Amino acid sequence: MTISSELPIVECVARARIPTTTGGPDIFLHLYKNNKDDKEHLAVVFGEDIRSKSLFKTRKNDTQQDRMIRGAYVGKLYPGRESADVDDKQKLQLQFDSETGALVYDANTTWNPENNTLVRIHSECYTGENVWSARCDCGEQFDRAGHLMAIDREPETNIIGGNGHGVIVYLRQEGRGIGLAEKLKAYNLQDLGADTVQANLLLKHPADARDFSIGKSILIDLNIKNARLLTNNPDKIEQANYPPLLNCVERVPMIPINWLNSNNGIKSKEIDGYLRTKMEKMGHLLSKPLNLHTAETVNTLI
Ligand SMILES: [Zn+2]
After folding, report:
1. Active site residues
2. What's the 53 CA to ligand 1 centre distance in angstroms?
3. 72-94 residue pLDDT tens
4. What residue ranges of the chain are covered by domains with CATH 3.40.50.10990?
5. Domain 3-89+104-178+206-253 class?
6. CA 267 to CA 296: how far, in whole Å?
């Protein structure tokens, strides 16, 4: 069986450099289309040299201008630059297979796929990322993943960071895959006493409707072979494995910031219940002894 018949086919259609407000390294935002849904899934890439196979592969009638505009260039763009494949200022040049047009791996210009790469597979969460919700820790986890990819080592935890290399795959599957409207209804059920799993079940949705197969295809397209996966979710460890193309070589824990420093991070009754449910019902590998609020029992609801 070929790979494409098992995994969704993805294609990176554009990539752009994003200078960030954090003072960390520039990131490269990759936008993907795929043959499974019509959503614009993303990869937030730390490291200019991590390259998408589908974006960089030469296309029919491709011009250097076309390639620079879609983001298939080496080094850095500057006013007046004429070649995507050559950065004169940094003395970098991409090589391509003359028959297939595929980018050829070259240690000077392209991240070695054998390197272990810090990876986070993140699902969109409008509320946690945009309206300061303290019902979940999605926004905090996104920030923390980026922070760890930028640094070489975190002194408090001794976690080895990405030192400027890493990939956050950002999947558009809001509300554990049930969509924002259903998620808002689930929040009302939570205010009525359900936990996050019970609320989904009451709405006749699975506890977790997410599908990470597109994420796997995106990582393979980015030529990430050995992933150090940032997660507490045992399901995700399995889903970042697709040997021999993609191997999860290590799990790096996502520790809530409030557990590292009680003056920082999210503090709310809701986040305590959310983390408790993740541990007790979803098998998440969070192990710190918790001083969480007592979970309210709502067994009468289901
Ligand atoms: Zn969230």
Report:
1. 208, 210
2. 31
3. 999 999 999 999 999 999 999 99
4. 3-89+104-178+206-253
5. alpha beta
6. 18
